[in-house]
TrEMBL record:
Low complexity composition bias: residue spans: 366-392
Region (Disordered): 366-401
Coiled coil: 84-111
Keywords, comma-separated and alphabetical: Coiled coil, Exocytosis, Transport
Domain (Exocyst complex component Sec3 C-terminal): residue spans on this chain: 404-704
Taxonomic lineage of the native organism: Eukaryota, Metazoa, Ecdysozoa, Arthropoda, Crustacea
Pfam families: Sec3_C-term, Sec3_CC
One Gene Ontology term from the biological process aspect of the record: exocytosis
MF (Gene Ontology): phosphatidylinositol-4,5-bisphosphate binding
Protein name in the entry: Exocyst complex component 1-like 2
Amino acid sequence: MDLERLMEQCDSAVSNAEAFAEQLSRDLSVLDGANIHSMMASEAQVEALMVMIDSAYTEAEKIETRLDSYDEILLHVKDSIEKMADKNTSIEQTNANNSKLLEELDRLINQLDLPRNYVKDLYEPDLNKAGMLPQAIQAAAALQLVINAPISSQLSQLQAVQDEKKRFDKLRGRFSQIVSRHLNNLFIHLGNDPGETLSLHAEQLTLPRHGSIHTELLPYTPLMHWIRALDHRAYQHLNKTYATSISKLYERDIRLFFEEARQRISGGRRLRGSGSSQDIASMSGVAGKLTSQIKHGAQTLGTRTNTGALLGVDRDQWGSELDMQERQKFDEIFERVLSELQPVCLSEQEFCIAFFNLNATGNEKAPSSVASTPGSSGSEESSGSAGTSSGAGLIGTPGSGHGRPFNREVRSMMAALFTTLEQQLASFINTYDRADSYCCLYIYVRLSEHVLTAEDTGSFLCTTFGSCLVQAKRNFDRFMNSQLQSIQECRVARKKCGIIPFIINFEEFAKTAESVFKKSERRADLDKWYVRLVLAMFEYIPRVASEHQRTPPEVIKMENYHVLHQLMFQLKLPGMDTQKKEAKQRYQEALSAYVTQYFGRPLEKLNQFFDGVTNKVASGVKESEVGYQLAFSKQELRKVIKEYPGKEVKRGLDQLYKKVEKHLSEEGNLLQACPIMVVWRAMQEEFIRQYKLIEDLIHRCYPGAMINLEFSIDDILNYFSDIALSH
């Protein structure tokens, strides 16, 4: 703004720059002088200002000194406050530790606190006194709690804790000794008490149950669990004492039970194959001496079939076996035996598991198949393709693997209690298996039913049944193999062959097998053997026919195929449709061959005459011109026809019937269908066929000659009917 004002004032001097510069110079000099005068005039004020500044500096130093003292004081206060904070934290931590220590001590005291009344009950328990048992159980539970109290390793090192532990251990030993002695005596007493025994006059065969023993021992279950947890040695001793004492009862009961079963089946009479010095009454008495009844039964089975009911052996050569009524009785009693064993063993097993706490430790996986049980060794002989593996698939899909697993302790305990069960069962099975070869069918089916329907596949009884089932399957296959072998080795020594033994015996065999396997899960095993046996019959009927010297082979094949077909049709064996059709076809082929060979051509001369006629026609002679041939003239034809009057034809047929009757056997009757009538009907049809052929040739080659045979088809039918009725 000053510059603008200056320029406005000097506007005229713009054109005169020099004058303007001079003007400016003068103004500057004036201003400098004014400034110097002004500065000199304010010197006193400046001095006063400097004095004031010095005074202020002095005051500032004083203030700074005071502030430094204050700062030192504050630093001391800070240290004091920090020390006080640390002290407060330490006090709080100490209080917290004291509280926790008090809590830990309270917990430790509570954990190790055993009321005095419990100590008294543990030290001097009177278990025979009424009402004392619940108190002892409570005291034992309290002692177990303090003994098993979760105390840290640091606290366990305290002398007081160690002293309490020693005191508790003495109480445990004292109480365990008293309880073990009491239970030991109780086990021995119960083992010597006869209790419930087998009733020999009861309507039903019944194995005594010992529920009263279980009822008496169940109140002691908590104490037994206590001993198992705290005194393993005493527990093992009690376990062994119980098994030893109670096994005597079961050994006696099972022995009498099987003796009574034998008595009810056979009335005590001696059975075939029972041994030279053993009979029904004494067989079970030596069961304890048997090392392996199952293997023994397998060895004797192979020899017992020499006199047993074999298909390929005549019935008069069969050994003395059980009749059908005794077989049914055996089936009923054997089913009763298995049914009675099941509740007794399962009841005892459940009691032992509960009382001895046998499943308290880790469970082992139960066996999934009885193929691994005793008796399934590979040394046994193969039983053929129908049986395949003797033990494989015996516990198949139904019920397989269900039920809870049982550990080794359970099975060991049950084996110690029922020491003779498997031996007695095997002895019973083998006695009747040797006495009657058909018993193996009943045994196999019944054992299969019980094993397949078992709820606890890993139980001792199921394992025992499984062991016997493996051998029963082998015996079944061996029995079937012996039947098959008897078919293959069959020889007919009779003068007239007739129906081969394995065809005659097949009816009883199949009916018996059907009655046993009717609704069994093992039906498939029987059906496989049916096919093998029938195929063997198909194979060996022709062999027997060719080997027999007196009976025509066609007759043997015709009769036996006929009876076999009728048997399969009557029995309605499932899955045998193919074999049934084959039997019918083989029968028809044999019948046709027999008729062709032995019926021949009764009108032989007529047949020869027309054979010549047929040859002439075949050589080119017209049928209407055959009569003009000298050898085949009408006169020659009438001459031949006269040789076959009705009486002669009937006489020839009668002789043929007698010949057929001699060929055929009297054993071929079945279902009101007599094979001789079937043969006679086939011969009648063949005769009528030949008759119609001759009549047709007469009408074609001798038309209008009015030539006919001296008998008609009706006459033929009457001849055959009269001859059949007369015989």
